[in-house]
Amino acid sequence: MKKVFIITGEPSGDKLASTVISKLKIKNPKIEYLSVGGTHLKNLGIRSIFDLKDITYLGFTSVLLNFLKIKSKIDKTVDEVIKFNPDVLFSVDSPDFTLRVAEKVKKLNKNIKTIHYVAPQVWVWRKNRVKKIKNFIDHILLLFEFERKYFDEENIKNTFVGHPLIENKISKTLIDEILPKDKKIISLFPGSRISETNILLPILIDFIKLMNKKSDDYFFYFHATEENKNLILEIIKKSNILNLDVVSEENIKSKILSNSIFAVSKSGTVSLQICNFNIPSIIIYKISFINFMIFKMLVYVKFANIINIINNKEIIPELLQNECNAKEIYKTVIYFLENPDLINKQLTECSRTLDGIRSKTSSSDEAASVLAKFLIS
Length: 377
Description:
By secondary structure, the chain is α/β, with parallel strands linked by helices. It has two domains: 2-167 and 360-376, Rossmann fold, CATH 3.40.50.2000; 184-357, Rossmann fold (3-Layer(aba) Sandwich). The protein contains 16 helices and twelve strands. It has helices at 11-27, 39-43, 59-65, 67-84, 95-108, 129-133, 148-152, 194-214, 229-239, 250-258, 269-276, 289-298, 306-311, 326-337, 340-357, 363-376, and strands spanning 2-7, 31-36, 88-92, 113-117, 139-142, 158-160, 184-189, 218-223, 244-247, 260-266, 281-285, 318-320. Helix 5 links the parallel strand 3 and strand 4 (113-117). Helix 8 runs parallel beside helix 9. The radius of gyration is 21 Å and the shape is globular. The relative contact order is 0.13.
């Protein structure tokens, strides 16, 4: 029986991995799996060797402060991979964890094929990583076609598969039995990492309070992961806000998002999903001052959001650092809601951008096909 070891580093990577593995299971049901994964892979019956929360950290300083803990998890993962002796090591996103594991595994056993999904953003920072990657990654799966040139330059085998979260255009789904009556829904995304949630959640709760002072027309949903759901529930209970709930089940989250009039989201993969649902949005993000200054010195791009980066202009407003506060979020959201022409312009530009980067076939099928080929070669 063929074996695949899956490595993810955070809930978003766990979700991406599960979309591919669910398709691979259809193509070849006789594969044994082991992982560093979360809820999504667990739902596919795949055991994780430890909890994802143990390796999910935000920013340089958090990584430095937890260096020994992270190193021990990398070493433990390498040991478990070597012991499992898979045909394929499938690493997904989180390059500072997953690629370090892949590099060590390749040195110990060159027969294990290494496939990485979600290329490191070398077009944003640390372009020299490509030269190193070619020494231990056999194939890289790209979310965006414009990434190809960076890996072609170093003769790294790659396949553009597209992004699984935007492979189908999503239309509004009616769920009247779940939604509050006569309320306009605003979806809030405080991040999948606990460290992100701890920073953004209090800001978003203060934003809700400002919205409620203006009008009682709105109902707010925090989109949570299984990993941070309890933390969010605990904090919102103390807020005494009645027009607020938390959802973590994927199908319900999708249905609520499709019925939202607006979204406030941390920067990351989820912003593409929001665009794919044709929901207007703004991006927020905040890290420590030291981390922010380090990022500013290292990055090549002006924007945090992929839609803005691709277009080299701000289509989706970004409220970062000092601007990431309840008053600024409130002012920006209200400005959009009171100017439907701005919303239409944003949605048109986002739709055009997604059409330009969307794979012509199913991205998860494409990625699963690459894995399947390695398992029969």
